[in-house]
Amino acid sequence: MNHRLLHRNGLLLILFLLSVQMSAQVTRQPYLQIVTPNSIVVRWDSDSARVGTVYYGASTTSLTKAKSDTGNAIKHEITITGLSPKQKYYYSVTGPSGGTSDQYFVTAPVTGTRQFTRLWVISDFGQSFSTSDDARRTVTVNVWKEFNNNSLAADLVLSLGDQSESDWESQLQANYFNQLQDVLRITPLFTTVGNHDAGDQRVVYKASFTLPANAEAGGLASGTEDYYSFNYANIHVVVLCADGFDISPETEWLKNDLSANKSDWLIALMHHPMHSAGDHKSDTDPFSMTERANWLPVLEDAGVDLILAGHNHVYERSYMLDNLTGKSTSLTEANKIDTALGRIDVDHAYKKVAGRPHGGEIFVNCEGGGTSSDASNLRYPFAFTPVVFRGSDYEGSLVVDVDGSNRMDVKFLCDELDAKGSHIWDYFTILKSANATSVEDSRALLPEDFSISNYPNPFNPSTRISYTAPQTGHVTITIYDVLGRVVSTLVDGEVATGNHTIDWSGKDGRGNDVTSGMYIARIQSGQFLKSTKMMLLR
């Protein structure tokens, strides 16, 4: 009798515990963080403290594995380990029978894998708190979905700060997670601290996001979630923050992290832009000036490709630049690596050599996903920013596609349609050629190995440009006017080591005669860059 009673009471206890588990409500839908080839973090919130469990498996009807919290929690944070690289797993936080086709995760490929990777980049998505802004956030998500073949999934989501207006739980839920939940339950998220995330000393921010402070996803451990790095496939990402503390330890960490990096591509994320003419002018913003002086030389020494920032609620981007650590007014010809738009179908892609420092980078200021600035905030021009769309209420996002080791494509998806009926308002491509491996090609080259000159000068109607290639490789010779605009590209291809000549007859790329005046012929091969001035007299 006693045994039967104990058995019955045991069954009742199990049923009670199951009923408690099933009755607990999920108040923040599951979202994914810190993905690696063998692990992932699953997070969600419930309405009461309890032990949460993630059930996962190979199909929606076979969630045969489980991982639970170590204690009662409202904010659940579970790291699933022992996974296989680049594999799809379905999961549920409501029970082993809760699998659905739209709730899954895909683990990262083995670090260093050269594959196609798609990143969706958003910024200032949670800032402002109104019904109209919620509607705009929805449009941003829908435009992304339409572009992405009617899918919300990317390999990663990168969020560039200001996930809320004042770092309140209610704002973070209403402005950010409610709008992005269908994306974040299938795509791992990495975030950057924004100034609006620091309203309560980042308490809510750090309680809501799990970030790889201890090198859980590669890179060098920073020991803090304020700044960190990670690897995905053949991409290394550094996430930086200049807001609210002494950046000296961060700068030292950055140097050490990048000295150990072997990835094909390097992307830097931060909230305050290094160069921007938007709402917070970087020529006068103290955080921007600090970033340029301390981090830009380190990033360029490591061959950074893309520097992404938010904060200013406008879309801006530079052409390819190097060593512009001062204000925009300090720009010289030496800073201009390539002043084209970088569009293959318009002029040409930007070109770099893998592994070489100071090959140039693109600065992109990402538009806000839910809020944007008025056109008046773009009246302060930067000569090095060729693509600026002067309009109000133009929200949007970025798509960064990395295809193997030699191609990166970046597109700005604006919520509005342009004159051609497209949401793609801007785009550019970076192409990388393989680094030299022979002893001769990798030798320390001298300045006199690389030269360009012309004769006669002044000239009419033509001049002969003489140049020396220091080694066999890709060479470009481009003619610019004094405003830095591309006039014509004379050479764009493989050139053998030695001395060469080419004639320029004073015509633009369409064959039209250009006017009298000063022009600049610039030669580039890898990190080598030289220019000569030419005077045309009609």
Give Rg in angstroms. 26 Å
CATH level 3 topology of the largest domain: Purple Acid Phosphatase, chain A, domain 2
User: What is the overall shape?
Assistant: elongated
CATH superfamily of the largest domain: Metallo-dependent phosphatases
Give the biggest sheet.
Answer: 7 strands, mixed
Number of helices: 7
Q: Please give the alpha-carbon distance between the first and last residues.
A: 114 Å
Mean of all residue-level pLDDT scores: 88
Task: Catalogue the unreliable spans.
Answer: 3-7, 10-23, 436-448
Structural class, from secondary structure content? alpha+beta
Tell me roughly what share of residues is in helical segments.
Answer: 10-25%
Number of strands: 30
The largest sheet has its strands arranged as: 10-9-8-21-22-23-18
> What would CATH call the class of the largest domain?
Alpha Beta
Mind telling me which CATH architecture of the largest domain this is? 4-Layer Sandwich
Number of domains: 3
DSSP strand content: 25-35%
Kindly summarize this structure in a few lines.
With 538 residues, this protein is an alpha+beta fold. Helix content is 16%, strand content 33%.
Overview of this protein structure:
The chain is α+β, with helices and mostly antiparallel strands and 538 residues long. The protein folds into three domains: 24-62 and 82-108, no CATH class; 118-433, Purple Acid Phosphatase, chain A, domain 2 (4-Layer Sandwich), CATH 3.60.21; 447-536, Immunoglobulin-like (Sandwich). 16% of the residues lie in helices and 33% in strands. It contains seven helices and 30 strands. The strands form seven sheets. It has a seven-stranded mixed sheet. Strands 11-12-13-14-19-15-20 form a seven-stranded mixed sheet, with no helix packed on it. A four-stranded antiparallel sheet has the order 4-3-6-7, with no helix packed on it. Helix 2 packs parallel to helix 3. It is elongated, with a radius of gyration of 26 Å.
